[in-house]
Amino acid sequence: VAKTPDRIFKVILVGDSNVGKSSAIQRFCFNTFSDDRRPTLDITFQMKTIVTAQGVTSLQIWDSAGQERFRSVPRLYFRKADGVMLLYDVTNETSLKNVRSWISNIKESAGNNAVIMLLGNKVDKQRTVTWEEGHAVALQCKAVFLEISAKSGENVPQAFEALTRILKEREEGDMGIPPSTGTPLGETIEVTSNNRTERFDVARL
Amino acid sequence: MDWDNHECIGRTFVASFSKSMVLECYSDYINNFNTAMDIVRKTCVRKPQFLAFLRDRQSSSSSRLNLYGLMLKPVQRFPQFIMIVQDLLKRTPDNHNDKLPLQLALTELETLAERLNRHKAEDEDSAHLRALIENSNLKLSTHTKDGRVRKLLKQGEMRECEHNVDGLLERVKDSLIVLTNDMLICCSITNRRQYHRGGGGTSKDMFKVRWREGLDVVEVTDGPPQAENEVKRETLHSDFILLQKIAKLVENLQSPHEGLSLPVVDKCIADLEIKIRQAEQMASQPDDSCITVQFPGKLEKVTRTLIFPYSSQKDEWLDVISKAKLANEPSNLDSWFSANSSDSDSLWKPPLFLRCLSAHTSYNEFQVQCAYAFMPVPHVTLLWLSCSASTVLAVVSVYYITDDRVEKVHVMQVESSVQCMEHWNPNNSIHSVWLGMESGCLLEYSSEGTYRKLNEVTMPTMSTVMIMKAYRNNLYVGLLDGTLAMYTRPKGTNDLNYVSSIVVGTGPLSCLSPIDGMLWGCSGNDVVTIDMENFKPESTRCLVTDGEQLVVNLVTRVGSGLWVTFCEECNLNLYHLDSLERLQEINLSRVIRDFTQDVEPHVSSADKSMITSLVSGNWQLLAGTSNGLLLVMPLPKLPGSVPK
């Protein structure tokens, strides 16, 4: 039975070239992965409906494929975004280093209201960036942090679900409704994946 | 049709995106995008029918894209085209007809996307500057005093500390710092709420200018102000202890004394406490996230400290301010002359001139023959300079250059003219510089203090050394007779071991540049490549057709293009790497003539000028000429594209 979403959130994926933005979307929306990345021509966004205890929510997921080489034009994508997933590659230190400039770019154009989630991708590979290093950057930038693998699918749905939950709770909070799950913002959310529980911080921006 | 019959699509891309009209209309579209979207949003609020119409269209369209998505499509087009062409190129065999057109298409698309981006950045910057002027009491004309367009370079929020005459912290304020191409402006944020709402609407009182100074008088240094602070803190602390003792003594006074009571001393202690706290606060500022700005005040120098949230931001600011200052110096204001003065698109940033160094020699007829600079440690540059008047004698001078001084530290004489020099330090054992001699040998000199001779090696063929290139553990030496010799230094020794030599061409080996595991060189009519790992000639490309009297002099590979110059010529030639088709020939003599006539009429341009050096890097191609000019051309940034 198709359910109509209560709310549609606009989410954009950004990050350096080859960090796996399109792959993460592909994994989440179609649960597939291909090593041979072809440019996506037709579709500029994907819709995915998430059913949680609080209701039905749709994510409108925008891919800024190929724009990352430039700085000014991609800002058009940040317009009125509710959430930003900022990806880096755990096998590439530079991609983590560039996170700060991405953050300032996002804040300049999306405003201070967008929820930013920092995702370290490609944990299936031999990493050169530790969890702690990524986490430290996330804390500094007040971003939610999680490590994922678009290839194995590890933590990918969890990342999108967590973002949805934060967006939803924040919206309810703004409307004066107390958060229903009892996870206050600024605290830690637990994500269970593959029998392993990861804790990550949720900071109000 | 072209595709069905010839499998060719590259030309179509080139034809569609090389017109200036394309850039203009896309640029307008992108720059106006936000305004257009705002109008759509406002109209949706005002006119429900319009909103209903949009919703209806969206739900009945196959793509389900809303108006924003549809409007974004043209923006997304360029990166998508770039990705498609890259993908297509990956699957196109080297000998395919469409290879070169596709590479050219990629260059065209990339250049266009880059320009769109720069136009958008320019547009945003000028909008920011306009908004700042609208929302503050700042008055700025559109042009600088010397008639350049005033541009916003950077703006950002930070904390600004003011100091009193004692160097003590007076107050800390949140500020907006604005850097234009000619001045540094500091504004207080007076209406924070309005500011954080995103600056909607205009309110005159959002910012208030605290100070603005021309970049020529502003001095910027890394870290907090000088260590006077440290001394001050110590005296404050010892005074504090003394005052406490005094308080105890006063307490024990038996009879009242005019002006000497416990409350008076307590007041002194309280005041001192505040001062100490401020001094501590100042000292606890991490050194790595603040810079000190000084400029002349009415009576004395004003010192302000700017504190940034992250040290990386501080580095960015320090860099951009120093560069802006450098760009304002007379030597940089006039030095770059645009060959194409109608080019309104000259938004690229030319390299900045740092300083001129005169090599004093006592003999007038001595000429600088070759120079070599390297940085043994950060912030120190060693410049080795060889001057000679004939082939039998040369004077080599060593200059020690730091940020604030240049010093000649050593002079020596060698018995043949120096053709080339190279710093080679394979096992991080010693810093030394190798001199390639006209007489056919290599001399190694220590570059650490003593400058003594460490090694002397004669070339296997006794031929004149033309060029040297150190790469990893090997030293490659190109000779006049077309031989390339390879040397190595075994670990733990200071010996030079001869490995082997190969003949790579018939003419002098005049250039060696290591690019992606390959050494690119020029010899006679050919451009040669040598596989560095196996030390074997990989390919020979003959660029000169029969009958032409040309000798290849310099070569550098950029993407799929080869930039080549010929001996005694003033042309830059661009060849396609695979087909060796000559794509472009740029004659620089006209540019040089125009420049010398316009800017330096006293320089004689009667002599035929030649290109004497060629370097690519940082997306720029630099060519040096025999009459002392440096020409710079921007290059595209994408790998695989053909430069133009």
Describe what you observe in this structure.
The complex is a heterodimer of chains A (205) and B (644). By secondary structure, chain A is an alpha/beta fold. Chain A has a single domain, classed as Rossmann fold, CATH 3.40.50. Chain A contains 5 helices and 8 strands. In chain A, the strands form 2 sheets. Chain A has a 6-stranded mixed beta sheet with strand order 2-3-1-4-5-6, sandwiched between helices. Chain A has a two-stranded antiparallel sheet with strand order 7-8. Chain B is α+β, with helices and mostly antiparallel strands and 644 residues long. Chain B folds into 5 domains: 133 residues, Dbl homology (DH) domain (Dbl Homology Domain, Chain A); 138 residues, Roll (PH-domain like); 49 residues; 179 residues, Methylamine Dehydrogenase, Chain H (7 Propeller), CATH 2.130.10; 93 residues, Thrombin, subunit H (Beta Barrel). In chain B, the strands form 7 sheets. Chain B has a 7-stranded antiparallel beta sheet with strand order 4-3-2-1-7-6-5. In chain B, strands 8-9-10-11 form a 4-stranded antiparallel beta sheet, with no helix packed on it. In chain B, strands 12-13-14-15 form a 4-stranded antiparallel beta sheet, with no helix packed on it. The longest helix of chain B has 36 residues. Chain B is flat and about 110 Å long. The interface between A and B is medium-sized, with 25 and 33 residues.
